[in-house]
């Protein structure tokens, strides 16, 4: 900078101070999943949002109250009539914006989320006569709400229900649909001969369909693991001993009450825990989800590479811009977006799986904050699935390029020729010595034509039928069982 130059000043907004975006109504999302990409991940809100957590807490508390009264666990407790049970379950069914706001206001006073749910539900019991008449027993069972429970009794069951719902109602259907789409592409292109590349170099030909089938098979195996996942739950008190339960009602079979309740919710009962359910099932599930993501990441990078090679042609979207300065470009953004979101999802899932299995002694609260990030972990995976679905749907195969690529690499037939020479040598044909070395000398670092290869085959002294078979071979026909292997997708 010249000695007399004036240093550039930081740019300042002209006029009044900038608008505080944090104060804008409706609120602006901090993260892209609730902002730019909301449409792709919105179905997860029903399962993995803070509001969904509170709705499941209300659901668990309601079902625990009904379970205690239906099984006459606590002496003197009334049995709820059908209309009273329906009234309670309707509290869950109608849980929406108004109830979310009400519960939030209660929590500001309690500074405790589960206690707020308890007070929220007790208020509904007190108000029951307005709907059910003065004879309803609901106002008198308020002390059975959260009976003998610690917060984690409610939370662990709520999270298990939330994650199960997210997996089975949202994530798995989307993942299955994507894998089915890839499988259909594999079947469609099972016979599309293609030069393979190992280490980036021309290699034994395959078919495009067979390569897509490999990825389909890998993804399907991971889906089957995820489909078999167990969702565990517990209800056994502050340190997993049923201490408060026995102190209050010593005559009840509390293990049986707990087991039947957890199974009533559709979960697997965990009989041995500290204050928390150990979360091992979550770690197992998230590891499987991360593995699915990583195979999908392999698909995304392979498709990106095939596009860059020209194997796939992207269909331009009318009106869309591929590059801000290069009008000819159609960028593979769907695959790049998927790649990045899969990496973000895996990072979160790996952290969840690694940290949720540890809790200091009988309880610490690190899992409370950690589990609130289950939604983003699923969200980034779901967003990647959505991008891949759309990206795959906008591709055409350039069969002419595949044919040209194969015809430019006749040297790949060195493998079948030297293999046939080996077999002939074993059968007693003379002159078949050093087949690998002879083909290496012919092909390595060279470009051969079909005529070159046929001339070499003709001078080997192979049996006539073998020589004729090899002379008819082309790179495009040297695909082995590739097309047939795709049939394994129907196993």
From TrEMBL:
It is an enzyme of class 4 (lyase). Its EC number is 4.3.2.2. It catalyses: (2S)-2-[5-amino-1-(5-phospho-beta-D-ribosyl)imidazole-4-carboxamido]succinate = 5-amino-1-(5-phospho-beta-D-ribosyl)imidazole-4-carboxamide + fumarate; N(6)-(1,2-dicarboxyethyl)-AMP = fumarate + AMP. One of its GO terms (biological process) is 'de novo' IMP biosynthetic process. Pathway: Purine metabolism; AMP biosynthesis via de novo pathway; AMP from IMP: step 2/2; Purine metabolism; IMP biosynthesis via de novo pathway; 5-amino-1-(5-phospho-D-ribosyl)imidazole-4-carboxamide from 5-amino-1-(5-phospho-D-ribosyl)imidazole-4-carboxylate: step 2/2. It holds the Pfam family Lyase_1. Keywords: Lyase, Purine biosynthesis. Residues 35-338 form the Fumarate lyase N-terminal domain. It comes from the Bacteria. Residues 359-479 form the Adenylosuccinate lyase PurB C-terminal domain. PROSITE patterns: FUMARATE_LYASES. InterPro entries: Fumarase/histidase_N, Fumarate_lyase_CS, Fumarate_lyase_fam, Fumarate_lyase_N, L-Aspartase-like, Pur_lyase, PurB_bact, PurB_C. The keyword Lyase applies. Catalyzes two reactions in de novo purine nucleotide biosynthesis. Catalyzes the breakdown of 5-aminoimidazole- (N-succinylocarboxamide) ribotide (SAICAR or 2-[5-amino-1-(5-phospho-beta-D-ribosyl)imidazole-4-carboxamido]succinate) to 5-aminoimidazole-4-carboxamide ribotide (AICAR or 5-amino-1-(5-phospho-beta-D-ribosyl)imidazole-4-carboxamide) and fumarate, and of adenylosuccinate (ADS or N(6)-(1,2-dicarboxyethyl)-AMP) to adenosine monophosphate (AMP) and fumarate. Belongs to the lyase 1 family. Adenylosuccinate lyase subfamily. NCBIfam families: PRK09285.1 (NF006764), purB (TIGR00928). This is Adenylosuccinate lyase.
């Amino acid at each position: 900078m010249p000695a007399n130059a004036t240093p550039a000043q930081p740019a300042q907004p002209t006029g009044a101070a900038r608008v505080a975006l944090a104060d804008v109504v409706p609120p602006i999302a901090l993260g892209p999943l609730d902002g730019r990409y909301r449409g792709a991940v919105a179905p997860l809100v029903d399962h993995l949002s803070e509001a969904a957590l509170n709705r499941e807490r209300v659901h668990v508390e309601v079902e625990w109250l009904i379970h205690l009264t239906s099984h006459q666990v606590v002496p003197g407790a009334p049995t709820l009539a059908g209309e009273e049970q329906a009234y309670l379950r309707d509290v869950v069914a109608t849980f929406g914006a108004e109830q979310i706001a009400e519960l939030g206001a209660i929590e500001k006073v309690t500074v405790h989320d589960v206690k707020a749910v308890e007070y929220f539900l007790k208020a509904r019991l007190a108000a029951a006569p307005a709907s059910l008449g003065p004879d309803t027993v609901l106002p008198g069972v308020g002390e059975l709400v959260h009976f003998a429970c610690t917060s984690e009794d409610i939370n662990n069951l709520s999270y298990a229900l939330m994650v199960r719902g997210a997996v089975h109602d949202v994530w798995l259907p989307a993942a299955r649909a994507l894998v089915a789409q890839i499988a259909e592409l594999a079947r469609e292109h099972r016979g599309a001969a293609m030069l393979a590349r190992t280490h980036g170099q021309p290699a034994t030909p395959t078919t495009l369909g067979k390569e897509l089938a490999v990825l389909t098979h890998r993804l399907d195996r991971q889906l089957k693991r995820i489909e078999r996942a167990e969702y565990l739950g517990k209800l056994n008190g502050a340190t997993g001993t049923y201490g408060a339960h026995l102190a209050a009602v010593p005559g009840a079979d509390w293990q049986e009450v707990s087991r039947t309740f957890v199974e009533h919710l559709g979960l697997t009962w965990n009989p041995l825990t500290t204050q928390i359910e150990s979360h091992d099932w979550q770690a197992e599930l998230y590891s499987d989800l991360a593995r699915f993501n990583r195979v999908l990441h392999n698909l995304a990078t392979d498709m990106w590479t095939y596009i860059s090679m020209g194997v796939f042609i992207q269909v331009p979207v009318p009106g869309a811009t591929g590059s801000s300065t290069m009008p000819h470009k159609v960028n593979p953004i769907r695959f790049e977006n998927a790649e990045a979101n899969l990496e973000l999802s895996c990072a979160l899932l790996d952290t969840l799986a690694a940290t949720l299995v540890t809790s200091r002694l009988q309880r610490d609260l690190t899992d409370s904050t950690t589990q609130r990030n289950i939604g983003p972990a699923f969200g980034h995976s779901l967003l990647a699935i959505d991008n891949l679905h759309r990206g795959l749907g906008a591709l055409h195969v350039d069969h002419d390029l595949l044919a040209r690529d194969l015809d430019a690499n006749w040297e790949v037939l060195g493998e079948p020729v030297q293999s046939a020479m080996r077999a002939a040598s074993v059968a007693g044909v003379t002159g078949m010595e050093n087949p690998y070395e002879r083909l290496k000398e012919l092909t390595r670092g060279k470009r051969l034509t079909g005529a070159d290869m046929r001339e070499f085959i003709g001078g080997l002294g192979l049996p006539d039928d073998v020589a004729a078979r090899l002379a008819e071979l082309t790179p495009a026909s040297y695909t082995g069982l590739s097309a047939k292997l795709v049939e394994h997708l129907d196993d």
